[in-house]
Amino acid sequence: MGVTCVSQMPVAEGKNVQQTVELLTRKLEMLGAEKQGTFCVDCETYHTAASTLGSQGQAGKLMYVMHNSEYPLSCFALFENGPCLIADTNFDVLMVKLKGFFQSAKASKIETRGTRYQYCDFLVKVGTVTMGPSARGISVEVEYGPCVVANDCWNLLLEFLQSFLGSHIPGAPAVFGNRHDAVYSPADTMVQYMELFNKIRKQQQVPVSGIR
Amino acid sequence: MADVLSVGVNLEAFSQAISAIQALRSSVSRVFDCLKDGMRNKETLEGREKAFVAHFQDNLNSVNRDLNELERLSNLVGKPSENHPLHNSGLLSLDPVQDKTPLYSQLLQAYKWSNKLQYHAGLASGLLNQQSLKRSANQMGVSAKRRPKAQPTTLVLPPQYVDDVISRIDRMFPEMSIHLSRPNGTSAMLLVTLGKVLKVIVVMRSLFIDRTIVKGYNENVYTEDGKLDIWSKSNYQVFQKVTDHATTALLHYQLPQMPDVVVRSFMTWLRSYIKLFQAPCQRCGKFLQDGLPPTWRDFRTLEAFHDTCRQ
Ligand SMILES: [Zn+2]
């Protein structure tokens, strides 16, 4: 498990989501990257049930339950800005039992699916983000396996991203700045996906989003 | 066999000594015979005891006498091997069948040859040290003067000395931790952890580094039974490349007479990988080339280069 950067790739001018994904993967293949199966990251939103909120009328906290095909035996439960719990996949069954406390938000499921590419020590995953039946955007994940400290290899990652993302250059993920020289963990990747999904959800609320 | 005398053996005394040994052996066996037979039948108990004690005393006296005689003779025989310049191996020259087993002449030739080799190696090493461009060259110049004769025995340094050298290096570099173990007898194995960047397994023979394997900080360096895994390579191309370069460095840093300087130079060079992912190439200015960061470190300046960007 190395350092991972998750970013959103805007849809190319005059193209739809699918065409832009094809453009990206073709660039990767020209670079010499090899196809290595597929990947999937999904996320479901839960909010605290009204009955547990009490009389203070405080707003319910949102909890995100996520899965990542890279860690098929794990389930991730995250709060925004809060702790990240890494549990066995049985956690999903537990969530059903906790219906009285956490309720699944309707039609909240969002996921990204796509192809996994290997290039030298880099692992690249280009995915189509979908909510329900429609494609909402493009996710680009780049993992650099040999390095474990995010700040050590950010410049190197950036140079690699530029080599196939072209003019679109993402900023450093917020989780990179959190701890100076801490060892990067899978939870950091899930936080990045959660933030990406939230961003895409908000874009969806605006009718003139980048979907053509 | 007449010329054997010239070796310095007193043959007369020699044959006398052999008969003295025979006499001593028979008197000793008489003592045991006497003890074995015990007390013979006599009329009175007192008579039996007296006769036995007297007999036993006689026998012991003759053992004593024969022993003294042997000791006197052995001084006369002398020590033949001490007189020969090649000690006991000189006795090989006494072999009468030279044609079939020319061991002695071969031995002399080998001895001369190895003497010459050592002499020439010493001269060559002195010359090379003056021409050296390595970082360790300056330190060498100073110590070369007070260095005594060449010592080819660096392979048999005491483990305690090796421990001291390694722990001194360990203290020299705070971002580098060195763990020494001896799973296979006297040869030491080091597990070097450099920051949160990489781990290196170093297999030593005395103070010489035999083999190194570089792996990632998050990679496993142990086998299933908990021993250091000195055979499998890293899963990452970047560390496979660094392993190759480290092996090259082992061949570069060579000072057979000062192995501790070699280990220190190697570790200093290795330490420059602390910026493996942070240092751009000093030639092309980029981080990546063919998906790899600058994996080469110059032996003198420790600057980072891509494998293909170094001269
Ligand atoms: Zn270069």
From TrEMBL, chain A:
A Pfam family the protein falls into: Med20
Membrane spanning stretches: none
Classification via InterPro entries: Mediator_Med20
UniProt keyword terms in alphabetical order: Activator, Nucleus, Transcription, Transcription regulation
Location in the cell: Nucleus
Record's keyword annotation contains Magnesium: no
Domain of life where this protein originates: Eukaryota
Main location: nucleus
Biological function: Component of the Mediator complex, a coactivator involved in the regulated transcription of nearly all RNA polymerase II-dependent genes. Mediator functions as a bridge to convey information from gene-specific regulatory proteins to the basal RNA polymerase II transcription machinery. Mediator is recruited to promoters by direct interactions with regulatory proteins and serves as a scaffold for the assembly of a functional preinitiation complex with RNA polymerase II and the general transcription factors.
PANTHER family registered for this protein in UniProt: MEDIATOR OF RNA POLYMERASE II TRANSCRIPTION SUBUNIT 20, UBIQUITIN SPECIFIC PROTEASE HOMOLOG 49
Family: Belongs to the Mediator complex subunit 20 family.
Subunit text: Component of the Mediator complex, which is composed of MED1, MED4, MED6, MED7, MED8, MED9, MED10, MED11, MED12, MED13, MED13L, MED14, MED15, MED16, MED17, MED18, MED19, MED20, MED21, MED22, MED23, MED24, MED25, MED26, MED27, MED29, MED30, MED31, CCNC, CDK8 and CDC2L6/CDK11. The MED12, MED13, CCNC and CDK8 subunits form a distinct module termed the CDK8 module. Mediator containing the CDK8 module is less active than Mediator lacking this module in supporting transcriptional activation.
UniProt name for this protein: Mediator of RNA polymerase II transcription subunit 20
Natural source organism: Galeopterus variegatus
Biological classification of the source: Eukaryota, Metazoa, Chordata, Craniata, Vertebrata
UniProtKB/TrEMBL annotation, chain B:
Subunit structure, as described in the record: Component of the Mediator complex, which is composed of MED1, MED4, MED6, MED7, MED8, MED9, MED10, MED11, MED12, MED13, MED13L, MED14, MED15, MED16, MED17, MED18, MED19, MED20, MED21, MED22, MED23, MED24, MED25, MED26, MED27, MED29, MED30, MED31, CCNC, CDK8 and CDC2L6/CDK11. The MED12, MED13, CCNC and CDK8 subunits form a distinct module termed the CDK8 module. Mediator containing the CDK8 module is less active than Mediator lacking this module in supporting transcriptional activation.
Alphabetical keyword list: Nucleus, Transcription, Transcription regulation
InterPro entries reported for this sequence: Mediator_Med27
Lineage: Eukaryota, Metazoa, Chordata, Craniata, Vertebrata
Family recorded in the similarity comment: Belongs to the Mediator complex subunit 27 family.
Pfam (any one): Med27
Protein name: Mediator of RNA polymerase II transcription subunit 27
Origin superkingdom: Eukaryota
Principal location: nucleus
Entry-linked PANTHER family: 34 KDA TRANSCRIPTIONAL CO-ACTIVATOR-RELATED (PTHR13130), MEDIATOR OF RNA POLYMERASE II TRANSCRIPTION SUBUNIT 27 (PTHR13130:SF4)
Organism: Galeopterus variegatus (Malayan flying lemur)
Cellular localisation: Nucleus
Gene responsible for this protein: MED27
